[in-house]
Design goal:
Helix content: 10-25%
Number of helices: 7
Distance between the termini: 37 Å
Radius of gyration: 19 Å
Largest sheet: 12 strands, antiparallel
Number of strands: 12
Oligomer: single chain
Strand order of the largest sheet: 1-2-4-5-6-3-9-12-11-10-8-7
Shape: globular
Length: about 300
């Protein structure tokens, strides 16, 4: 398969090796550690596969405990916490080479009527007139580096920043800890709602911590910090398709003590609030003599 969207669907298609035990692939890529969104998305697939499929996910809460090794399969063990009249709860532990690297609790809820209200979507330009991320890089550098081109060919999402990227320290002056992007899968993801939910979970971890970095350093280029996701929470408010455009608005209310907190809101083109996201990340200044954030 050459389509990155198809590869994402395949990545989320776990192998069942026992009643509540699944195995997921971890691509052998030139990464320091397994991408956290991959582990979260696969864990949510495992949780969903142990339900009757009639109740959509309404929330998840997760902790990243250890870095995963690229190229090594990950085993997901599911515990059936509760099957109630309206809610279903599952706990998932992700294990790699005998060590727990991640855990997740997910709750599923039967659809029911209720009050309808939300904060409005910010007034931003639509995605069609915005440059792609590759175009932004070409404009700044005059060419597209091969390493970035390889990443772009593997990227399962079309990403378009609402505001022009800042590339210099001068451009960072006065920047608020906010960011916003339009995103969608680069190809169709099928009609299984669980696949769309897990694909969005994958995407939600891609750039949420950017909001913490905006006032400090350019989002693309050499990094001055080693970053690692610590925990991740999502609330799913309405049905959606991840292969249609959605706006991912992010902000960081605080960064202190080597950690940064980021909040995200995901809207569809009609302005409906689909998902709320919160994540905390570890931020350590890079020093040649020190290890990485994974040492913690």
């Amino acid at each position: 398969m050459t389509n990155p969207a198809e590869r994402l669907v395949d990545l989320l298609d776990l192998e069942r090796i026992e009643l509540d035990i699944f195995r997921g692939r971890s691509p052998d890529e030139s990464l320091q550690r397994v991408f956290g969104g991959q582990v979260a998305g696969q864990a949510l697939v495992a949780a969903g596969r142990t339900t009757d499929g009639q109740r959509p996910v309404h929330s998840l809460h997760a902790y990243f405990l250890r870095p995963g090794r690229p190229g090594v399969p990950i085993v997901y063990q599911v515990e059936r916490i509760r099957d109630g009249r309206s809610f279903t709860t599952r706990r998932v532990v992700a294990i790699q080479q005998g060590r727990t690297i991640f855990n997740l609790t997910a709750s599923f809820h039967s659809a029911e009527p209720g009050i309808e209200q939300q904060l409005p979507m910010p007034d931003v330009p639509g995605p069609e007139g915005l440059p792609t991320l590759a175009d932004e890089v070409r404009t700044h550098l005059g060419t597209l580096p091969e390493a970035f081109a390889r990443m772009e060919r593997r990227q399962p999402f079309d990403i378009r920043y609402v505001e022009r990227l800042r590339w210099t320290d001068e451009e960072l002056k006065g920047a608020e800890p906010r960011s916003a992007v339009w995103m969608r899968a680069v190809g169709p993801l099928g009609d299984d709602p669980l696949v769309h939910t897990c694909a969005l979970t994958y995407a939600s971890d891609m750039m949420l911590l950017d909001a913490v970095r905006v006032p400090v350093e350019p989002l693309w280029g050499p990094r001055g910090f080693d970053m690692a996701s610590l925990d991740h929470a999502m609330w799913f408010h309405r049905p959606f398709r991840t292969d249609e455009w959605f706006l991912y608005e992010q902000e960081s209310p605080v960064a202190t003590g080597g950690r940064g907190l980021a909040r995200g809101r995901i809207y569809d083109r009609a302005g409906r609030l689909l998902v709320s996201v919160v994540q905390e990340g570890l931020f350590r200044p890079l020093r040649p003599a020190e290890g990485t954030a994974d040492d913690g």
